[in-house]
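fyi for ur records
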Amino acid sequence: MTAQNVLSPRQLERLLAIDEYIRSPIRYTAKVIAEKLSVAERTIRLDFAFLRDRFNAPIQFNQSKGYYYSDNTWRLPTIPLTQGELFALTLGAKALEAYSGTAYEAELKSSIKQLATRLPEKVWVNLEKLVDEKINFRPGAELLNLDPDIYQILHEAWKSSRQLWIRYYTAGRNEESERIVDPYYLDIYRGSNPYLVAFCHNRQAFREFRLDRIREYRILDEYFEPNPNFDWKKYSKNAFQIEKGNCLHEVVIDFTCKVAPYIREWKWHHSQVIDEHHDGSLTLHLEVGGLQEVKRWVLGYGKDALVKSPPELVKLLQEETEVIARQNETGDFE
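which gave:
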């Protein structure tokens, strides 16, 4: 790839996705690809022209096949990497390995080593040594029952828009159930808790399924048409941590000056507003879709957090702390 063909990361990501759609046995039009990549149809047509003009991509179109390659042996040219870019990829691979266990360990190592061939061997060895010796990721608690093969199944289901059959364990009810789902998104919380956002045919609604609680799974022959009205950003914007909730709550919490510095350091939610006080304390305002996760979060700050509203959250905390007090007094669970 010459200097005139240098791509922005966003365009490169699109070209790689377009290449995958064109190679898929599913018929894709420019409009459908544009919808899947959340860009204008004109952008996709410009990308097609770019691939034809700069890389001689043998892209063809007809009504029965959609877009396809007239020569399936054609491949995107290799992509040059700077030392800094490869370092970022190596760092990302180490992070994924730490957070995802061995799910993609072999594939990650193989991919990074192939990319490393674009640098002198000594540079690559030094990078590997630097990352291994100087950088450590500590993901905290790790999922114990995650089957790494589920990522491959999800990839196939997304690529072909096919439904999944799953046998799912619900921890709250301590029971398993069989579901037919249309997979939409993977929502990864704190780098280690992956949740599949899918339309559940049993419930006729969108639900979240934690991957390690999917006991069995298989891809089905049935296809699904993604709901064009489903807006992932709108669906998830009011979530606090992993809880989406069904209605909006205005939450107001006072924090003492002792813990206020820790609250200021983080953006806990996109809606947050902080009122500063002269004594160093602060008041945090949030608009969230559920209260259970907020309750657990507030409990972590103990007496240094005081919920002012809503009344439902105040009541949840009162009930929880009363039970905790009784259990510590009796030494038994209620």
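The two ends are 67 Å apart (CA to CA). thats all i got for now
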